[in-house]
Design brief:
- The structure is a single chain.
- By secondary structure, this protein is an alpha/beta fold.
- Helices cover 37% and strands 15% of the residues.
- The strands form 2 sheets. It has a 4-stranded mixed sheet. Strands 3-7-6 form a 3-stranded mixed sheet, sandwiched between helices.
- The radius of gyration is 15 Å and the shape is globular.
- The two termini are 29 Å apart.
């Protein structure tokens, strides 16, 4: 949670408030895939968003997916208020390797920036080191920097400035 909060505070003009954890419902689990559906999680986040909130970011430890993709590192409403990031596949243990807390926190930061970037209207970036680049496997997450490239960073500054009036 601290890494996600730092990422938000570094890039977004939002006050950060931590909320009570939202439970995961049993019927969101898909036994055939051994994953949870992300869409009901996002709906639940949307319903829990405070009236004065600009964004809501959910962090989960469970593996998530949507029917058309085998897994997700995260998901967001494009130009909307809801983002979700799963730490499940960001952990080294998922790949049969020893735990590495610092690597997990770096990966988490990258994916938080990525998903919140989508909520701010940013699309996937062709620069592989940009937080907004598409990552279809963990190696691509590791190639990213925990920041936006110059182009995406400039877009983000413009979009955030517009929000502030």
């Amino acid at each position: 949670m601290d890494a996600a909060e730092r990422a938000v505070l570094d890039w977004f003009p939002f006050d950060v408030a931590r909320m009570e954890a939202i439970g995961i419902e049993k019927d969101w689990f898909r036994p055939a895939r051994e994953q949870y559906e992300s869409v009901p999680m996002m709906r639940t986040l949307a319903a829990a968003m405070p009236a004065d909130g600009a964004r809501i970011l959910g962090l989960t430890a469970v593996d998530i997916s949507i029917p058309m993709l085998s897994f997700l590192f995260g998901q967001a409403q494009f130009n909307g208020p809801v983002a979700l990031v799963s730490a499940a596949r960001l952990r080294q243990e998922f790949y049969g390797m020893p735990a590495d807390e610092s690597l997990l926190l770096e990966r988490l930061t990258k994916e938080v920036l990525h998903e919140l970037g989508h909520t701010s209207g940013l699309i996937h970036c062709p620069e592989t080191n940009c937080a907004m680049s598409l990552a279809t496997h963990i190696g691509l997450v590791d190639m990213k920097k925990p920041s936006f490239c110059n182009g995406c960073g400039l877009q983000m500054v413009r979009r955030m400035s517009a929000l502030q009036g």
